[in-house]
Q: What sequence folds into this?
């Protein structure tokens, strides 16, 4: 069977309708200035990384979290050597970061943040705990514009416990993760 | 002993609030790698910003002089 080619003129629409057995289904093509999305438009860079082990965080020192293990990285844009995501497709990205501390009886601040190009861009929730067996949790989530070439993001954690270094919990996706996905092209 | 601990020993007027996110005037950072050249540091911890109104930033020599 030969291909069916539908060609529109400069105005109006072309409708492809299914048989009206269970109602009418209509496919509406965009105006001549629009484009039909392809799989390339909806399968942008997406990553998830976790930390494979604990990490010592000094008191009152913003410390980059060593998310050193990829869960997935669809476009090879996450670097496990510097814990940095540098997407190669320009657009708007949703980023999420989450990390749990080890237990502490004196944790007043446990605060994750996401930095863009080495400057803090988004501060997350503040976790506190006064139990030696219960960790603090902090989450950060937001939408960032990334230029698709030089822009990068990283996650940092700040803690104040007054008792020296505090550790992140041993890594797994449910205790520490850093994720991001393209949600809209530029 | 961390950079933060050493700073508090040489700058006894400072408190934890001076290092707090948003409201503090001093930023200590650790990028999980060697600190940028010229920064006062202990290990990978370094002074990223020092904007305190009255206390001057300690030198590397002063920090190095704090006994463990």
A:
């Amino acid at each position: 069977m030969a291909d069916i080619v539908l060609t529109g003129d400069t105005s109006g629409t072309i409708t492809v309708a299914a048989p009206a057995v269970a109602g009418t289904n209509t496919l509406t093509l965009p105006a001549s200035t629009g484009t039909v999305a392809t799989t390339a438009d909806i399968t942008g860079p997406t990553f998830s990384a976790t930390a494979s082990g604990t990490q010592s965080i000094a008191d009152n020192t913003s410390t980059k979290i060593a998310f050193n293990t990829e869960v997935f990285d669809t476009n090879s844009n996450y670097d496990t050597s510097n814990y940095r995501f540098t997407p190669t497709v320009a657009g708007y990205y949703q980023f999420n970061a989450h990390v749990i501390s080890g237990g502490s009886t004196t944790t007043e601040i446990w605060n994750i943040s996401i930095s863009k190009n080495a400057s803090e861009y988004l501060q997350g929730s503040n976790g506190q705990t006064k139990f030696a067996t219960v960790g603090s949790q902090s989450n950060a989530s937001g939408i960032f514009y990334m230029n698709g070439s030089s822009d990068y993001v990283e996650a940092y954690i700040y803690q104040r416990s007054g008792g020296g270094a505090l550790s992140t919990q041993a890594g797994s996706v449910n205790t520490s993760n850093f994720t991001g996905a393209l949600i809209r092209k530029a | 002993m961390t950079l933060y601990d050493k700073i508090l020993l040489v700058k006894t007027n400072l408190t934890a609030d001076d290092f707090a996110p948003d409201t503090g005037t001093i930023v200590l950072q650790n990028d999980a790698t060697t600190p940028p050249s010229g920064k006062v540091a202990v290990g990978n911890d370094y002074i990223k910003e020092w904007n305190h109104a009255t206390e001057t930033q300690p030198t590397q020599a002063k920090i190095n002089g704090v006994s463990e």
Observations:
- The first strand of chain B starts at residue 26 and ends at 30.
